[in-house]
Every structure is written in C-alpha cells, then in structure tokens.
Amino acid sequence: MVGKPSFSRKVFIVINTFLLASLSFICLAPVIHVLFASMSDPTLLVRNTGILLWPLGFTYRGYELVVGNPNVIAGFLNSIFYVVFGVIINIIMTSMGAYVCSRKNFAMRKAMNFMIVFTMFFSGGLIPFYLLVENIGIANTRWALLLPTAISAFNLIIMRTAFQEIPDSFEESARMDGANDFIILFRIILPLSKAVVAVMVLLYMPYFIGIPGFMR
C-alpha cells in the first residue's frame, strides 16, 4: 500500500510543476504571440509592445490576403511537389547506393565507400555546383533541386550500415530462387528496413521544406 507523500515530496512536486509550467510557457509564448498577431488589427498591433495573450481587434483580414495571393498558393504547391517527388527520388537513389556499398561480394566496395566519405570532408563549393547544373542543362528547372541532391553521403552511410545488419542468408535464398539485385533490394532488403527508411524520410524532408539551417 502506498503511503501519503511526505512534506518534502509535496514541495518537490509543487516546485517541479511550477518550473515545468514556466518552461512550457516560455516555449509556447512565441507561437501564441504569432497566432494572436495574425488575428489582430494591424493599426493596433504596431502600437503594442510585448507578448500578445489575446487578439487586438479580432479580424481575419490577414488570412484572407494570404489565401487570395496566388504566389502563396503556388509556393505551397511547389513545396508539396518537391517534398513528395524529392523524397521519393532520395529514397530510391540512396537505397540503391547503400545496397551496392553493403554487398560483400562487390569488388569496389572499399573504394566506393572511401569516395563517398571523402565527399563529406571536401567539396567543390557553390560555383562548381552551379557550373555543373548549368552544363548538364537543368538550370532554371525543377530538376536543379531534385537531381543534384538526390543522395546525401551521410544518409547513404546510415542506410548502408542498416543493410549490413541484415543476414546474408536472405540474399542467398533469394538468389537460389532466381531473384536479381533489384528484386532483392525492393522486395527483401527495403521491407526489412522500414525503420531506417522512415529515418531517411525525416532526414531528407527538411531540405525541401526549407527549414533554416538545414545542411545536406
């Protein structure tokens, strides 16, 4: 039977609750301020100082202007397009590269892994990147955002490590049944690696969403 909490336990609960509630308010205050500012009258909002805890002159005019702006809608549609198709391309290309680098019977496996790791420390920079995009003819097209960033070396290494943990017996039994590398990858390896595929989706999505500070 659990006894009544002691006085020190009650003090701890009160202080802990107060500190966590204060921390939660500090984290939510900017979000609350932006939400109520979007519903406030602009003339009253510019005169206000400090955090808003309620709307000033409640209005939906700001939302009407945003929804009525075709550039905003086009931006959202572009974001959805790049997230969906970009992540699909990323997952397919990264999984294929990770599969090749994880095969023990691949003669160039060590050299390939070295070249992939090398690109994580040394790169050509922004100007060579632009010249490459320009020379292959995809500048000012959607492919300029999709193809050059189809594979991240860091993410490929993570997926390669996950593929290496799958027993070789799965591949051997599949080859005995006549399966080729594509069947082994897409019907055996990837279904057994759903967790790492989900991680890859979470790692690739911020690039296309445009989260500040995200680096490939």
Description:
With 216 residues, the protein is mostly helical. It has two domains: 7-67, no CATH class; 70-209, MetI-like fold, CATH 1.10.3720.10. It is built from eleven helices and no strands. The protein has helices at residues 7-38, 42-45, 61-68, 70-102, 109-121, 126-135, 143-146, 153-164, 168-176, 181-189, 194-209. Helix 4 (70-102) runs antiparallel to helix 11 and helix 8 packs antiparallel against helix 11. The longest helix has 33 residues, at 70-102. The protein is extended, with a radius of gyration of 26 Å.
What topology does this entry show?
Blueprint: H1 7-38, H2 42-45, H3 61-68, H4 70-102, H5 109-121, H6 126-135, H7 143-146, H8 153-164, H9 168-176, H10 181-189, H11 194-209
Helix pairs in contact: 4-8, 4-11, 8-11
Question: Keywords, please?
Answer:
extended; 2 domains; MetI-like fold; 216 residues; disordered C terminus; 11 helices
**Global outline:** extended
Q: Please report the first level of CATH classification, the CATH class of the largest domain.
A: Mainly Alpha
Structural domain count: 2
Helical/strand content category: mainly alpha
Give a count of the beta strands, DSSP E runs of length 2 or more. Answer: 0
The biggest sheet, with number of strands, parallel, antiparallel or mixed sense and barrel status, is: none
CATH superfamily of the largest domain: MetI-like
Strand content: under 5%
Question: For the residues shown, what is the average pLDDT?
Answer: 86
Task: Give the end-to-end Cα distance, rounded to a whole number of Å.
Answer: 55 Å
Helices, by number, come to: 11
Order of helices and strands: HHHHHHHHHHH
Q: Which stretches are poorly predicted, pLDDT < 50 over at least 5 residues?
A: 211-216
CATH architectural label of the largest domain: Orthogonal Bundle
**Looking at CATH, which topology of the largest domain would you report?**
MetI-like fold
The Rg value, from CA coordinates, equals 26 Å
Q: Can you give the helix content as a percent range?
A: 55-70%
